[in-house]
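Let us practice reading a record.
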Amino acid sequence: MTPRFATDVVTFYHPDFWDLPSADAVRAWALAHPELFWARVMDALDEAGVTGIELTFAPGDIESALRAFGSAQGFRRELVSRGLAVVSAFVAGEDSPDWRDAGNLPAIVADAERRAAFLVDAGAELLVAGLPMRTTFGTRPPLFVDAPFMTRMAEIAHAVGEAVAQQGVRLAFHTESNSTLWYERDIDLFMSFTDPRYVWLCPDSCHIALGGGDPVAVARRHTRRVALAHWKDAVRPIDVELTIDETVFAQQQPYMAELGSGIVDWKGWADVMSRTPGADTVLIELDEAADPVAALLAGRAVASSVLP
């Protein structure tokens, strides 16, 4: 079976694509014109031959889709009319209750249930989340990513995973750079602490490589729990200690690359992905591509060349 191609809406966030001066200007314009924002994104998806989307933080978030189309069902109807579909929705840390606060569990679960209800109505069944970010190296008191920490994270993941499962939605965790689910041992530890019936994995080939890990080896160890994967390349592992604050994502950007121009073993990755539960989707993630159509076409070509 030939998998469908998908991408995260963040692919379309580059100001040049919108002829605007900054990311803030893109967010402001999209907030004021959600219908025009989604129309252009959908036109670009069609031009690139990409049929699946992952919703993410603003402006390509659930709230934006609701403003533009009135309801999840309305969003789905527009997508279907264009041959498109929602694959998943990503829960950005800044858009959800803090997992490090033990008192936030009811709010965390309620937030996930709300997102899951949207996904069901939009025709999707996968919610992608992440674990909290690490703290800058040298910060006191330090944040240790150890067994007690992962026990707490697993307890929350189980509560969220069970809640969204009641709606037919799976919960998968993304391996974000500089987060507490970044290094190979982080991933192995968290997966060993969580129940495979309720907690799935969304490995990101770039981010794992940025942490000095082997994306193929990680995916191979957790093959049966990969519900979706982000296909993205890396220039090299991050070789400095970054300041982990609101600028960390921009600091990571120079280490990322378009598919085929970095260090990821795409043949090995594709071989493993073909044996996962998420094998029916190839999600090419290109953070803020200036020319997203060209970048997606190039990414599709690389992925197609290695698919079994």
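A brief commentary: The longest strand covers residues 85-90.
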